[in-house]
Write a structure and sequence with these properties.
By secondary structure, this protein is α+β, with helices and mostly antiparallel strands. About 30% of the residues lie in helices and about 15% in strands.
Length: about 240
């Protein structure tokens, strides 16, 4: 091969490399313009998986405890991290989810990256809420009485993009790319201590009704209302 042929071959390689680099740059610019970042989707999937797995583990532990003889009122969420879960009806560790001789779980504190810091002054920000004050329409017995209240695990103040990801993984529709909005304000203040009180009925939205787990937005102004993930631990 003479020198002119070699030069032509080298020039062709340079042109092909330039095309590849230009294409890569175009993809990167497209991601920047769309607000996406490399690895963001994978990160959201991992975060959503951690939330779903922990909440499912809590649900399984509740079922195990009740199968072993504890009543719905005796279930205790007392743990060494989040205070406020005394339950006088639970007199042994066997009815405590976070005791080795009970549910055998370890409390997993929510990660900062899961949460919308604009709501950091909200009740129980940064903790799971185990609640006996919310009823989910279409789950268990409806009617708004104390007997219709579900036992829930709630992760309050979830970031919107993570909320959407959770619903995607649960095959729950996000209308217009937004999590379904409830017609009530979820009670994330009161912690379960053995008493069920029908203070909030989560209803009014076809995407929410009948769901055992979902991420929703509270009623109110869409620009400011927080997003909460919930999982039904016991339907009543």
């Amino acid at each position: 091969m003479n020198s002119s042929t070699g030069q032509m071959g080298s020039a062709l390689i340079y042109i092909l490399v330039a095309i590849v680099l230009f294409a890569s740059l175009a993809v990167a610019v497209g991601r920047m313009n769309s607000g996406a970042t490399p690895g963001n989707s994978q990160s959201l999937q991992l975060q959503a998986t951690e939330i779903l797995q922990f909440s499912q583990a809590v649900r399984t532990a509740v079922q195990d405890i009740t199968v072993n003889g504890a009543t719905e009122a005796q279930i205790s969420f007392e743990n060494p991290v989040a205070a406020g879960y005394p339950n006088a009806g639970c007199v042994t560790d066997s009815c405590k989810l976070f005791a080795s001789s009970g549910g055998g779980l370890s409390y997993i504190k929510p990660q900062d990256q899961w949460l919308d810091a604009s709501h950091n002054a909200g009740a129980n920000y940064g903790d799971w809420v185990f609640s006996g004050n919310n009823a989910v329409t279409g789950v268990g017995t409806d009617g708004g009485s104390d007997a219709s209240v579900e036992l829930l695990a709630i992760l309050p103040y979830v970031k919107k993009d993570l909320c959407v990801q959770i619903n995607n993984m649960l095959n729950i529709a996000n209308p217009g790319g937004n999590p379904p909005q409830d017609d009530a304000v979820t009670d994330v203040t009161d912690k379960f201590s053995g008493t069920y009180t029908a203070s909030i009925v989560m209803a009014g939205n076809a995407q929410i009704s009948g769901q055992r787990a979902a991420c929703i937005q509270d009623s109110g102004a869409p620009a400011t209302a927080p997003y909460h993930f919930f999982r039904v631990l016991s339907a009543r």
